[in-house]
Amino acid sequence: MPLQNRIVDNRDATVAGHLKRHMRNAGAFSLASAYFTIYGYELLAEELDAVGNVRFLFGDPNSVEDLDPSANEPKSFELTERGLEPNHTLQQKALAKRCADWVSKDTVAVRSISRANFLHGKMYLTDSPDGATAVVGSSNFTKRGLGGSDRPNLEINLATDDRHTLAELLEWFNRLWKDRRLTEDAKQRVLDALERIGGDYAPEAVYYKTLYELFRKDIEVRLAGEAAAAATGFTGSQIWNALYEFQKDGAQSAIAKLREHNGCILADSVGLGKTYTALAVIKYFELRNERVLVLCPRKLFENWSLYPAIYGHRQNPFLEDRFGYTVLAHSDLSRDSGSSGGINLANFNWRNYDLVVIDESHNFRNDGGQRYRRLLDEVVKQGSKTRVLMLSATPVNTSLTDLRNQIYLMTEGREDSFRESLGVGSIRTLMAAAQRVFKHWETGQTKGGSRYKEQLLENLGADPAK
Q1: Cα separations in angstroms, 265 against 37, 131, 288, 326, 462
Q2: CA distance 205 to 301
Q3: CA dihedral in degrees (437, 440, 446, 450; nearest 10)?
Q4: What is the percent of the chain with per-residue pLDDT over 70, rounded to a whole number?
Q5: Where are the alpha helices (H) located in 24-146, listed in sequence order?
Q6: How confident is the model over 126-132, as a mean pLDDT?
Q7: Model pTM?
Q8: What average pLDDT does this structure show over 126-133?
Q9: How far is residue 296 CA from its own chain's centroid?
Q10: What residues are paired with 157 via a beta bridge?
């Protein structure tokens, strides 16, 4: 029965289903697609293996390494409470090897457009003793594009067997295929990519790849911060070049967490140079034209007032950095008048800062205190979005409630701020559960009465409110 013209949109009929019917006795099959994936091949593998001659023209040979280009790209593994579980890695390897066997045939030719993001047309042209047919439209050679997934793309394709239209389509394809300035042979590149997918890997390569995938987001945030630091001249500052390597690592990590989570606690032990590390973080944000407030105990006021250029201190080792942060004491949060370091507290605008650095932040472990409430309500919550960097060698004094209340300064008191970024549904619930587990472990109430760190970490488990 003549086909003439019909729409194939992956609803009433799928592209894969249509092609299967018309490729059964095909002697030649020509297709153009922006992408080529092994899961697209899987849908038509039997038919493609039987076709006498295949010409594949597509936009990006590297797309073969994508499982299926889309926002919902499937992962090779997932992290669960039972550990790392493979989803479809073994199937993927076998499929990649089968696809490589097909591509390596003399009857299969692969060419690619040499200009990136240039080929957007999609066409499938079949020639068989039963007659020629074509599908032209929006469907890429992917699982969702061909309509093979549970949630296929809604496409708009026109299927036709009109001989004049088919002749024009074949002429269009042949012109592209023969244009050596616009296209290039891509068969070996595809085979190399398939070998990487289907090949065996050294154990250490698997280990490093696993670590990378687990910490991909943290790495990307860190790299983005490093790029921004280089652009602002941060790495050329005096304070940066005065740091030891471990302090540089600490500063970069703190910057990444401040950018991603809005807060960070620098909990290095006494003597490891938390002040210098914090100064580097301050310099980074000052170079981004952000306003910084340092809150410290009154006894440390002179230490912190050594570095800002406004004080003109002769012993300032970082004169060229021209620090511009403001310094006030913890106790100033209890005052509405008087002077502190030359600042008139009656007219001081607490809500004016983008970054607040709190030295000895464990002094703010009680969320019911007057200073704590003013810090949270006036400094953190009001005005511009405020990041909070806390310094303390002892962030926990009596219980994990101390840590929880300091974390609230990062989240503006919200319980679910880390639901999306860290999977923590409720900070309060998580800390309460962790405190109970720790108490049992500390008092020897665990199984067998042991107090091994490994047992504590295992019993802490995941967030119960996730």
Answers
A1: 45, 71, 21, 20, 21
A2: 51
A3: 110
A4: 84
A5: 38-43, 45-50, 89-103
A6: 83
A7: 0.55
A8: 84
A9: 35
A10: 8, 137
